[in-house]
C-alpha cells in the first residue's frame, strides 16, 4: 500500500499531495464525491482528465484543480497577486527592450538587443 499520493493534472501540475487516507476527504471538500460502486482513484483520474464532470453545485472545473491545491496548500492570494505583478513588469520590460532595440544602430554594442539581454538576466535573478 502507498502512504502518500501525488496525482498530476495535464501539464504536470500537482492536484493533491498528501496522505492516501485523506485524499477522499480533500476532494469531497471541493465538492467532488465518488458515487457508490465506483473506484475512487479511477474517478479522480477521470475528473482530472475532464472525462467526468463534477456536480454543478461544486463549482469546480478540472482545469482549476491545480490552483485549488495551491490555495489549499498555503499559497496565498497575495503571493499570486505579486506573481501577476512581477509577470506584468517583466512583459513591460521585454516590450520596452524590443522597442529600444529596434531603434538603435546595429553597431552600438552597449544598447539594444545585446544590452537588453543582460538587463533581462539581471531582472530574472
From TrEMBL:
A GO-annotated cellular component: membrane
Record's keyword terms, sorted: Membrane, Transmembrane, Transmembrane helix, Transport
The protein's name: ABC transporter family G domain-containing protein
Membrane topology: Multi-pass membrane protein
InterPro entries for this protein: ABCG_dom, ABCG_transporters
Molecular-function GO terms, alphabetical: ABC-type transporter activity
Domain of life: Eukaryota
Statement: the UniProt record of this protein carries the keyword Transmembrane: yes
Compartments where found: Membrane
Residue ranges of domain ABC transporter family G in the record: 1-74, 75-123
Amino acid at each position: 500500500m502507498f502512504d502518500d499520493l501525488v496525482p498530476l493534472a495535464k501539464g504536470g501540475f500537482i492536484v493533491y499531495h498528501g496522505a492516501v487516507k485523506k485524499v477522499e476527504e480533500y476532494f469531497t471538500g471541493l465538492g467532488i464525491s465518488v458515487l457508490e460502486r465506483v473506484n475512487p482513484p479511477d474517478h479522480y483520474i477521470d475528473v482530472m482528465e475532464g472525462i467526468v464532470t463534477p456536480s454543478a453545485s461544486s463549482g469546480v472545473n478540472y482545469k482549476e484543480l491545480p490552483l485549488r491545491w495551491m490555495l489549499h496548500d498555503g499559497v496565498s492570494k497575495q503571493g499570486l497577486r505579486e506573481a501577476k505583478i512581477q509577470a506584468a513588469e517583466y512583459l513591460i520590460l521585454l516590450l520596452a527592450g524590443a522597442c529600444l532595440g529596434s531603434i538603435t544602430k546595429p553597431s552600438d554594442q552597449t544598447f539594444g538587443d545585446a544590452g537588453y539581454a543582460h538587463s533581462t538576466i539581471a531582472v530574472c535573478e
